[in-house]
């Protein structure tokens, strides 16, 4: 009986060092979504398909009311292929403004079919005029001002994340 405890300890150590345990730990680390260094929000890939061409972005995801209220306020720069995705739960007809938003933005309203409903292009920094979707939206994508036009994005384009 005195050998049983040390034997159990050795077996536990071997199990912890087994390839299966190492693979499980690696899977856990690699499935953890990256976070944006400023906002702390999850970053996910997003693709907009226009005329058969895919445009790929890495976007921060604002899920909660607090995350959405802050959005890109006070941000002074954003990469050309970066953006922020505001998930609307439940879907609604959202209106956005540019309060405390330093950089111009394109607001892309996305319908329940994951297609662009309309684009509020080149929203003016600090302007509090409501920018509204033309229908029920499941999400709003914010990109740098002028980026949608530069890429030719238009209503009806498919958005996937």
What features would you describe in this structure?
With 161 residues, the chain is α+β, with helices and mostly antiparallel strands. It has 2 domains: 1-32; 34-160, Jelly Rolls. It is built from 4 helices and 9 strands. The model is unreliable at 6-30 (pLDDT under 50).
CATH C-level label of the largest domain = Mainly Beta
In CATH, the homologous superfamily of the largest domain goes by the name: Protein of unknown function DUF192
Count of alpha and pi helical runs: 4
Distance between the termini: 57 Å
Using the CA coordinates, give the radius of gyration.
22 Å
Biggest sheet statistics: 7 strands, mixed
* Mean model confidence by pLDDT: 87
Low-confidence stretches: 6-30
Strand order of the largest sheet: 6-5-8-3-2-1-9
Number of strands: 9
What is the third-level CATH name, the topology of the largest domain?
Answer: Jelly Rolls
User: What structural class do the secondary elements suggest?
Assistant: alpha+beta
Helix fraction by DSSP (H/I, runs of at least 4): 10-25%
Map the helices and strands.
Layout: H1 4-17, H2 19-31, E1 43-50, E2 53-62, H3 65-70, E3 82-92, E4 95-96, E5 105-111, E6 116-123, E7 131-132, E8 137-144, H4 147-151, E9 158-160
Parallel strand pairs: 2-3
Antiparallel strand pairs: 1-2, 1-9, 3-8, 4-7, 5-6, 5-8
What are the main properties of this structure?
7-stranded mixed beta sheet; alpha+beta; 4 helices; 161 residues; Jelly Rolls
């Amino acid at each position: 009986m005195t050998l049983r405890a040390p034997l159990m300890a050795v077996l536990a150590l071997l199990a912890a060092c087994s390839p299966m345990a190492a693979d499980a730990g690696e899977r856990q680390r690699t499935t953890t979504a990256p976070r944006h260094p400023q906002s702390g929000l999850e970053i996910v890939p997003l693709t907009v398909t226009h005329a058969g061409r895919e445009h790929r972005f890495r976007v921060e995801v604002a899920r909660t009311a607090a995350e959405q209220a802050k959005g890109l306020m006070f941000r002074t720069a954003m990469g050309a292929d970066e953006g922020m995705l505001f998930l609307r739960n439940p879907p609604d007809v959202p209106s956005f403004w540019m309060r405390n938003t330093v950089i111009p933005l394109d607001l892309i309203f996305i319908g329940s079919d994951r297609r662009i409903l309309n684009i509020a292009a080149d929203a003016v920094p600090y302007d509090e005029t409501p920018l509204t979707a033309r229908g029920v939206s499941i999400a709003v994508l914010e990109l740098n001002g002028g980026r949608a036009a530069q890429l030719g994005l238009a209503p009806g384009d498919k958005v996937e994340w």
